[in-house]
Amino acid sequence: MFTGLVEEIGLIQAATRQQGGVRFVIFAERVLEGLEIGDSVAVSGVCLTVVKKGADHFAVDAVQETLQRSTLARWTEGTAVNLERALPVGGRVGGHFVQGHVDGIGRVQDLQTRSPGYWLTLQLSGDCAALCVEKGSIAIDGVSLTIADVNEEVISLAVIPHTAEHTTLCRRRSGDEVNVETDLLGKYVQRLLTNGKPASGLTLEKLFEWGF
Fold first, then answer.
1. 136 half-sphere exposure, CB direction, 13 A CA radius
2. Mean pLDDT of the chain
3. Domains of the chain, CATH where assigned
4. Which end of the chain offers a freer environment for a tag, N or C, measured as fewer CB atoms within 10 Å?
5. What does the alpha-carbon distance between residue 208 and residue 212 come to, in Å, rounded to a whole number?
6. What region does 51 belong to: left with phi over 0, alpha with psi -120 to 50, or beta?
7. pLDDT digit string, tens, across residues 45-94
8. Residues in CB range of 45: below 8 A, 6 or more apart
């Protein structure tokens, strides 16, 4: 479990194809403190297990399922990634609960400077957009953000200067892809209201009928 508060920006040192997936070697500093083989690290929003550790790097393996559902397949040497260690027992949840299980890939429509921060607009898949609400939480490349506006499958996010400085978000350009994880609570509520069936039949009228 993570909180969506990025600890540092790492760099992909190597991406090596191996049977069943890819091994990534990632240069890091801060997240190496106390890191052990077998620990979980959120790498741009994807929960991965540490399989090796060196003085200035660690390695993780990604299987085909993860590569297909996220942006990892496009990572190459030099790619900047957001890093966060798993939340320790008793740790403070400064963002929101993030599992590191990517729901889909979003595409950057626009990134504008809006003093004192930035305004990020993303195109999402229908499944992800259905779980987005204004003022709700979402993780973009592992960064906990608050949704400022929802317009069908397009969402807008305000990025404060601190977040812009300490994550990769403001390096994004129009057309870039990002990992999207919707709010955990929203997924459970959706499943409850639809009895585990696809959410295509869920309407505002039905929510009112059910007392929401």
1. 20
2. 92
3. 8-85 (2.40.30.20), 104-198 (2.40.30.20)
4. C
5. 5
6. alpha
7. 999 999 999 999 999 999 999 999 999 999 999 999 999 999 887 777 77
8. 70, 82, 98, 100, 102, 139, 140, 141, 142, 143, 179, 180, 181
Can you say whether residue 21 is alpha, beta or left, with left for phi > 0 and alpha for psi between -120 and 50 degrees? left
Structural tokens at position 24: 């990534």
Residue 34 pLDDT > 60, yes or no? Answer: yes
Q: Is the pLDDT of residue 202 over 60?
A: no
List, as one string, the DSSP characters of 37-83: TT-EEEETTEEEEEEEE-SSEEEEEEEHHHHHHSSGGG--TT-EEEE
The answer to whether the beta carbons of residues 98 and 201 sit under 8 Å apart is no
**Tens digits of per-residue pLDDT, 102-132?**
999 999 999 999 888 999 999 999 999 999 9
Instruction: Find all residues with CB under 8 Å of 10, minimum gap 6, and list them.
Output: 26, 27, 28, 31, 43, 80, 81, 82, 83
C-alpha span between 105 and 181 (Å, rounded):
9
Tokens for 103, please give them: 């729901």
Residue 35 CB partners (closer than 8 Å, separation 6+): 41, 50, 53, 58, 85
H/E stretch holding 207: helix 204-209
Distance CA(26)–CA(96), nearest Å, equals: 25
